[in-house]
Amino acid sequence: MTSNDTINLKNLDQIPTIRLASSSTREAAKAAGGTSRDFWNVPRSSLHTMPGFNVRIRTQSYIAHVRWLADQMKAEGFKQDKPLTCYVSKGDSAESLIFVTDGHSRLEAYDLASSEGADLGLIPIVISKEQQTQSIEDLTVGLVTSNSGRPLESLEKAAVFKRLVNFRWTEGQIAARLGCTSQHVRDMLLLASADPQIRDMIARGDISPTTALSTMKQHGVKAVEVLTEAMSQAKAQGRQKATGRHMVDPMIRIARRHAPTLLKTFKSIQSDPGFVNLAPETRSALEELLNQIATSEKSSSKKAAKQLPAEGDPKGQETLDLT
């Protein structure tokens, strides 16, 4: 993946539509040809993933992580102390199917290593009785609370929060189950609803989730424009990431660009004979503005004068020595 490749974020908006019907774990594992010790060992062909369930984003960082896991598996095999967590459910044909609910990265790494010639054999999985009593909502919560591998990124967590809202959970319920504040829930939901351009910037690492949130709260619909400009400013300075220091309100930027012309126009209006014919409040506003500008100019001149070295000042001469 290069910096210009598009990152697919469609999975963040997906809702699992599968209907779970708990089934016998022993029956499913044996049917898959698995062997049992402290957990089950099953062939790769018996494991399934639920469409729309995994919220991982295939960023460069994630792909590198899977690559690292695959290389580890090639060297050491699939670690038995890192089993996949699974759920057994009846399929459409009443057949018991084993679905992975935690360990999608490891499963992808297994597939990658296998595609490159590694013979990794059976995969260790855990199917607990507690797991079998859970609903799709519980399993979704587990993407955050029971994650045994690489922690979810903010955008990925935001997708979980949004999914729970679509399950008709309240902010209070989400906060209680995920162990966070209601404000954090609101922030995650705001992040989940961000413009696709903003979410793409976050996924690429151009901006942090915190920067995105603060900009969205401050600028609303203008957030995309502000963040895009900030990224341009950052790149112009040789930076890979835009931060608050690169933020400039579009209106402020426009005002700065036209400030000299505006000041010249205001002064010409003030000196125009027709100035006295303006409404009193208009004249007062213009005069107040020009007075503030004049005061600022005087203040700037005084500061500049203080910074100049006094005549004959050795220190000053040393400072201004250009040789």
UniProtKB/TrEMBL annotation:
Sequence ranges of Basic and acidic residues compositional bias: 312-323
Region Disordered: list its residue ranges: 295-323
Gene Ontology terms: biological process = chromosome segregation; positive regulation of sporulation resulting in formation of a cellular spore
InterPro entries this protein is in? Chromosome_partition/occlusion (IPR050336), HTH_ParB/Spo0J (IPR041468), ParB/Sulfiredoxin_sf (IPR036086)
Positions of transmembrane segments: none
Give every ParB/Spo0J HTH domain span: 152-218
User: Which Gene Ontology CC terms are recorded?
Assistant: chromosome
> Which superkingdom does the taxonomy of this entry point to?
Bacteria
- This protein's name: ParB/Spo0J HTH domain-containing protein
